[in-house]
Amino acid sequence: MVEDVEYINEIIENHSLIAYKVLVKRYETRVFTLCFKIIKRREEAEEVAQDIFVLCFKKLNELQDKRKFPNWLMKIAYSKAIDHIRKKHVVKTDIDAINALHFKEEQTPLKKAIIQNRKEIIEKAINLLEPIEASIITLFYIQDIPVKDIAEITQLSLSNVKVKLFRARTSLKKIISSLLKDDLKDFIED
Amino acid sequence: MKHIEQNILWAYIIDDIEPKNIEIIKHHLDVCPTCKYEYEVQVKLHNELYEIDEDMPSLDFSTSIINKLEKNLKIERANQFWLKFAKTAIIGAIVISVILPMIVLILQRVDFTISNAYLHKVIFPLSSIGLILWAFYGMDVFLRRTYVK
Fold first, then answer.
1. In chain B, which residue's Cα lies nearest the Cα of A145?
2. Domain containing A48 — which CATH number?
3. Which of A62, A83, A84 minimizes the C-alpha distance to A73?
4. B61/A162 Cβ within 8 A
5. What integer is the mean pLDDT of B90-114?
6. What's the domain range around A122?
7. Which of A11, B35, B77, B89 could pair covalently with B133 via S-S, beta carbons 3.0-4.6 A apart?
8. Which residues of A touch B73 (CB under 8 A)?
9. What is the ipTM of this complex?
10. Contact at 8 Å (CB) between A103 and A179?
11. Is B38 touching A (CB cutoff 8 A)?
12. How far apart are CA B16 and CA B39, in angstroms?
């Protein structure tokens, strides 16, 4: 597989959109996932993610260490997505809140069905997290990025990332408990 | 019995704990059902989180980005053209309005008579053209910055 650096050089030298499309394809899922987990609205997240890629194309010649392109891209994605929700004052989605209530009201038969789909429950729980907590959970678990790199992306200290990660997991646990209307007993039983 | 704190349990799960504490925690988990239960919950959550898939953007995501970039590049190129054109036009107008009177003066000394009215008809229009072009260019840049994003 051709390295990112080669594509980046091609983009800087020739403004090659073909080369940039390859990089976009390579990182679109990663950037979109982070934006979606922070913004929590698909259309808005997609628009912000597109703007991030447009901005990165313009700023690519400012990137000093080309091997660090993924972290640089994610750093821009994180700050733009956080800026977006701060500007727009996006609150947690009503649909999620309604779903949460819906889950609480349901009784045992449906609960069993829900337990079969733990992924769905966890995804809903992540959607109910605060944007920064959701982003750190996304970077650490879904995108498998080490804590050190998360600190670089979020511009938080290493210890702060660890603390936020711990808090996010604790919040997740509480949300899942409330979604299941139980103390996670069903969640751990296969 | 004192239970293990949640943050220490998390650190134990993600292997971010001092080696000397590992054995203590292992032993405690063997004898304390409350902490054992909490540990199992957290391990389950930890493992399940790794199973969550990334969200996929729409199919035309990358194409939309490239289209936006193409549009931006076109505008940039157009701006560059107008910048060059305006610069050339302004310099040209200045040069002509300076050189022409000099030529006229030289011609007047060698006893060529050219009326002042004719002089004004040549110099003022040329200077005005330069100014008008500059104003058009300025307006073009202003409108692009204001309305084209």
1. B50
2. 1.10.1740.10
3. A62
4. no
5. 76
6. 94-188
7. B89
8. 15, 17
9. 0.76
10. yes
11. no
12. 15
